[in-house]
Amino acid sequence: MTPQNITVLGATGSIGVSTLDVIRRHPDRYKAFALCAHSQVDKLFAQCLEFQPRFAVLRDAALADDLAARCRQAGLTTEVRHGMAALVELASLPEVDTVMAAIVGAAGLEPTLAAARAGKRVLLANKEVLVMAGELFMHAVRAHGATLLPVDSEHNAIFQALPADFSRGLSACGVERILLTASGGPFRDTPLTDLQQVTPEQACAHPNWVMGRKISVDSATMMNKGLEVIEARWLFDAAPAMIQVVVHPQSVIHSAVQYADGSVLAQLGNPDMRTPIAYAMAWPERIAAGVEALDLFRIGRLDFFAPDCERFRCLQLAYDALAAGGTAPAILNAANEVAVAAFLEGRLPFLGIARLNEAVLAALPAGPEGSLADVLGADAEARRMAAAMVAGARFA
Ligand code: NAD
Ligand code: MG
Fold this sequence. Notes:
Residues 268-384 form the DXP reductoisomerase C-terminal domain. This protein has 396 residues and is α/β, with parallel strands linked by helices.
């Protein structure tokens, strides 16, 4: 068989590295066509040496020149590009079959939308795309015949537990509820009075998953679960009231679907992102992912709790933004990106993240999500406001 050409957006990140590991195991099926990263030149060069992609992309010209020189010296024919235009092009070139969207945050929106508009097979890890522009993105997927496969473990689990023709409507398929599981993060039981002092290192030490720093902080605030509620709303055309968050600290059940006849179908597995990545890559087939088999005897028990929306304000804010509609989720997402970056840099306390998100969401009126320009405009305005609030130390 001819290998599928894959463009990996965010190749040097946690999802990118796991994607390349699955590609490495199946060279007959997959070829890394383009590897795209922000600024980790050493890591991207090592990946170029191993996978010999046609293209590599970095953020700016100086970084790209550095990588190009190293590639030439090593005898590689990899062409090195830089900037957003290159990401957009390499997500939509005719030779590309599949795009792994694994950039973190709003930076992934334009290339991922370009992949959908070019009718690609889009493997979506970059949930912020659906949070910011769910309606636009899903419209592009349908209008251009793209194939959208969720990589986020919960949404991948839901996709596996739904019938193949779920796009005809969840109710028509007998679906009553989506049970979106959440680990509760590292601070599920931390006394509220201790949360003010939490450090970035503590927030990034997730009990079950090893992930990039932004999503790790989002897991600690449960903003991640809020973003995932919005993601599920768009991926499965689910009414927000149908999406029930279930705290499940072991992260063995990755999510479930409850049907009208009382059946609940769930997907289980070890917490290793190579499972949903390999599923999305091979769908509708299944391939080896290098993941250890689940040992239920070793796990022994599974626990479930209702989420505490007082402790985890960010989860409630996501439902509020969904209810407000239009650009409200994009505003919340932008505020949160600024808040998380400020927290990681020591400029905002942990509890300031939720307070900042709430303040920005309350201050900016949501507009219609008419076009990409509307979304990017709301994103920019929310970032400006959030940055000013951090600088004004309103939440210190
Ligand atoms: P990460 O921080 O480990 O990696 C991010 C990648 O994006 C890096 O390769 C980086 O170079 C690239 N990048 C960042 N900013 C960029 C920019 N402006 N332009 C171009 N490239 C840029 O993040 P991650 O944990 O791999 O997460 C990636 C996405 O997948 C996020 O949206 C996250 O929510 C989602 N996700 C991750 C996991 C996980 O287990 N890590 C699980 C589910 C969903
Ligand atoms: Mg997830």
